[in-house]
């Protein structure tokens, strides 16, 4: 083989194997047999003339030469895609697939609808929406954009602040009828709390009062959960009190299924951010979705302007 055998298909296969560390995972992702992935890698290494990957029974890792080749390959593939967009002109942005990851409850209740509206505007753009509250490796999972609530630590991604998510203390009328309505924050330790097990420090509830004063009160309960939609169901079922994002319960408040308690006291808002994989930020269809979401996200109940 010679350098003319370094095809884009083989290069893409190598990049995804390098990112995922698994031939079988990439085969499933690409919809091909693992033998095809293996062949692409062998042919690419033959064409380049050096080993790019080191294979063990459990994992595939890059050699030193592979790491250098990977960095260049990512840039080449990005430039090829951008060149296609430019060649197609205005139609370039309206084709292809975008992969987006989103906090689960927010994605189910609100982001999915925004994506429907986006695809109505750009019917040839496919969107793969992955819903998870875990902090996944965006590059490894092949994600272009991620929407996340709370503090972020991945400085390698492009960050765009979308807004502040306001939270409320809520409970069902049935719960309040049975257990009474708290009048001040100090009443909360005597009540059942619905807590998020995937949030550190959920056994203490931070509140800001009407005069700006801060309160930290013990917050316990018999039910803990790691998913916002399950917490929503527990609230409706009268299992306790919870601090909830406005967007999580706005329809339930409007229907009278939940009520705001201690309205003068509120948990601190949570930052909503968009993470963008730098190598994908220049792709036209990705830019379109980034701008579309940034424009529409403020229409979600309780999402205020970024600080």
Task: Summarize the amount of helix as a percent range.
Answer: 25-40%
Q: What overall geometry do the principal axes of the alpha carbons give?
A: elongated
Indicate the structural class.
Answer: alpha+beta
Number of distinct beta strands: 15
List keywords for this structure.
307 residues, alpha+beta, six-stranded mixed β-sheet, three-stranded antiparallel β-sheet, 9 helices, 15 strands, 38% helix, elongated
Describe the structure.
The protein has 307 residues and is α+β, with helices and mostly antiparallel strands. 38% of the residues lie in helices and 22% in strands. The protein is built from nine helices and 15 strands. The protein has helices at residues 8-20, 23-30, 34-48, 64-88, 104-121, 173-179, 228-236, 246-254, 284-296, and strands at 53-55, 60-62, 96-102, 125-131, 145-149, 158-165, 167-171, 194-196, 204-208, 214-218, 223-225, 242-245, 259-260, 270-276, 303-304. It has a six-stranded mixed sheet, with helices on one face. The chain is elongated. The chain starts with 7 loop residues before the first helix and ends with a strand. The mean pLDDT is 89.
SSE layout:
Elements: H1 8-20, H2 23-30, H3 34-48, E1 53-55, E2 60-62, H4 64-88, E3 96-102, H5 104-121, E4 125-131, E5 145-149, E6 158-165, E7 167-171, H6 173-179, E8 194-196, E9 204-208, E10 214-218, E11 223-225, H7 228-236, E12 242-245, H8 246-254, E13 259-260, E14 270-276, H9 284-296, E15 303-304
Parallel strand pairs: 3-4, 3-5, 8-11
Antiparallel strand pairs: 1-2, 5-14, 6-14, 6-15, 7-12, 7-13, 9-10
């Amino acid at each position: 083989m010679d350098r003319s055998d370094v095809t884009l298909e083989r290069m893409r296969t190598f990049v995804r194997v390098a990112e995922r560390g698994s031939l079988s995972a990439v085969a499933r992702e690409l919809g091909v047999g693992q033998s095809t992935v293996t062949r692409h890698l062998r042919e690419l290494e033959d064409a380049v003339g050096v080993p790019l990957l080191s294979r063990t029974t459990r994992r595939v890792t890059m050699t030193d030469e592979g790491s250098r080749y990977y960095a260049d390959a990512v840039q080449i593939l990005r430039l090829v895609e951008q060149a296609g967009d430019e060649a197609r002109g205005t139609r370039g942005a309206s084709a292809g697939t975008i992969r987006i990851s989103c906090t689960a409850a927010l994605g189910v209740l609100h982001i999915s609808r925004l994506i429907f509206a986006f695809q109505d505007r750009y019917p040839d753009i496919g969107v793969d929406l992955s819903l998870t509250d875990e902090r996944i490796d965006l590059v490894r999972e092949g994600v272009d954009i991620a929407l996340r609530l709370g503090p972020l630590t991945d400085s390698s991604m492009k960050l765009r602040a979308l807004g502040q998510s306001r939270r409320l203390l809520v409970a069902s009328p049935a719960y309040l009828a049975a257990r009474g309505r708290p009048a001040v924050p100090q009443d909360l330790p005597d009540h059942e709390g619905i807590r998020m097990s995937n949030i550190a420090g959920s056994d203490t509830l931070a509140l800001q009062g009407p005069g700006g004063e801060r309160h930290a009160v013990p917050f316990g309960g018999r039910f803990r959960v790691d998913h916002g939609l399950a917490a929503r169901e527990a609230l409706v079922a009268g299992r306790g009190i919870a601090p909830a994002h406005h967007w999580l319960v706005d329809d339930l408040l409007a229907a009278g299924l939940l009520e705001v308690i201690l309205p003068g006291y509120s948990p601190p808002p949570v930052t909503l951010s968009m993470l963008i994989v730098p190598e994908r930020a220049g792709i036209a269809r990705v830019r379109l979705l980034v701008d579309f979401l940034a424009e529409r996200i403020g229409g979600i109940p309780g999402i205020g302007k970024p600080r």
